[in-house]
Amino acid sequence: MDFSATYKVLVLGDSNVGKTCIVHRYCDERYYDTYISTIGIDFKQKLINLDGVPVKLQIWDTAGQERFRTLTTAYYRGAMGILLMYDVTSLDSFNNLSYWLRNIQENAAPDVVKVLAGNKCECTAAQRAVDKERGDKIAENFDMPFFEVSCKQNINIEECFLTLARKIREQREHRGENFDEEEQAKSGNMKRSTSNGLGPFTLGNSSSEGRCSC
Amino acid sequence: MENTFNNKTDKENSENIIESDINCKNNGDEDFTSPKMEVKKEIVNDEPSELSFETYPENSEEKAKRKLIEKAINDPNSRLDTWLSFAKSEYGLVNDDLRKIVWPLLLNVDTNKLDNVPTLEELKNHKEYEQVVLDVNRSLRRFPPGIPLKHRLALQDQLTVVILRVITKYPHLSYFQGYHDVAITFLLVTGDAVAYHIMEILSTKHLAECMQKTFETVQKRLLTVFAITYREKKELFEFLEKSQCGLLFALPWYLTWFGHSLNTYKSVVRLYDYFLASDPLLPLYVSAAIVLYREDEIFREDCDRASLHCLLSRLPEDLPFEYLLNYSQKLFEKITDTMSYERESFY
What we know:
The complex is a heterodimer of chains A (214) and B (347).
Chain A: E1 5-13, H1 19-28, E2 41-50, E3 53-62, H2 69-78, E4 81-87, H3 91-95, H4 97-107, E5 113-119, H5 132-141, E6 146-148, H6 157-185
Chain B: H1 2-5, H2 8-19, H3 60-73, H4 80-88, H5 96-106, H6 120-123, H7 129-137, H8 149-169, H9 179-190, H10 192-204, H11 216-232, H12 234-243, H13 251-256, H14 265-276, H15 282-293, H16 295-300, H17 305-313, H18 321-346
Helix pairs in contact in B: 2-11, 2-18, 7-8, 8-9, 8-10, 9-10, 11-12, 11-15, 15-18
């Protein structure tokens, strides 16, 4: 099964919602008040214990500005999970979720796992621009688990990534079962379909994923 | 200015190597020996790293060069060539007091005829205002440590103004995240009025491609780094290509002239000396030179996208920039020479 698996995760969302921050918080268990803008794409990884099984989470942290998107879509294709983020103090960042969801639909694998996170939930009532219910609603519509998180106060960070990792695992197990069934049912030289579990993410992903990322 | 930017053909040449020249044999001189990196696994520091503003007493060569530059500043016969040569040769313009005077000269900015600086209030309506402010607020590491808060906040407002002035005056130029890293370098050295004029020139020339509506051209342009690697060290290119690490590791280098990625202030301004006196594509040659220089480290890494992106995107602390700049210039000349030779033979 998932022996020493690597799960590839992409973090998306508007500029300044806290993408780099959540990755640092999760991978390094640290928080900085000010970050530098991400230019292009950054990368971190963390070995986690997923219900007793070691898993390597590869987390790709992207630039929020729209013009970088053409450069990062190569990474959408390789992603098994996406952490989509907004900032609860910025209505724009919430409204732009539909833009990000459309991007995901256009560029990522059709069955990519998504988790939604509304960051900065430690804010005061006066600062808050998006109620939790609105997050719940969009998450339900798009079938994504949803967490309000705070990088600053370390709320729900771990849960967010573990949920994503568990969903990826479920997906892979599900795919694996389908794959076995298909293999058994297969007689002769049936062409392997791309949805049979050997998408571009498993071993030997050399040619299908596209040559270089920029 | 003429001299600095008479490079259209060079630029076209370099562009051509991307498509047509990638299959050329390495016909370059092999005698350019590189000081090899120490064999060690780099300790990756993933924190939003501090920029070191450490200063060192000038050595005797720097002192001699400083005196020469000071003399040239007072000499009415000094010409653009004088400044170009100082900016490129070892130690560059030596210190920020000299840079403040010579940087504008390199770009023909007349510091006696500066436009009035508008207020932030007058520029706030620009559609990129929010994005610019978000990035400027996240540029703290670029300010000297210990700078009084009030002073820093004033400088950050000035930075916002410099950026918005350029994109307001040239509506066809689009702001990109990283532009603020370039602008701040000039702001801190020359002050806001001069920095604006410098950014105006850079934005319409050196950085013009980066400021197009999309990064499509930049994306193609980055391939230069691999094209040079292919010519110089085919196995290295093949290794990188196989890993699918792509070229996004070099994106901030190109977009910010390394200002975003370097760990020491001294190296940032040294590179800026050189870039102000060079072809706009030179940062890509420096990027390639760095990749070639790190060959041993690269080959020791696992051949996969994540490992190599991670290794390459973090610049080692101890890069020998004088060597790398020299090497880049040689690569640039070699490639443009080959191109003109090939063109002549073609006709």
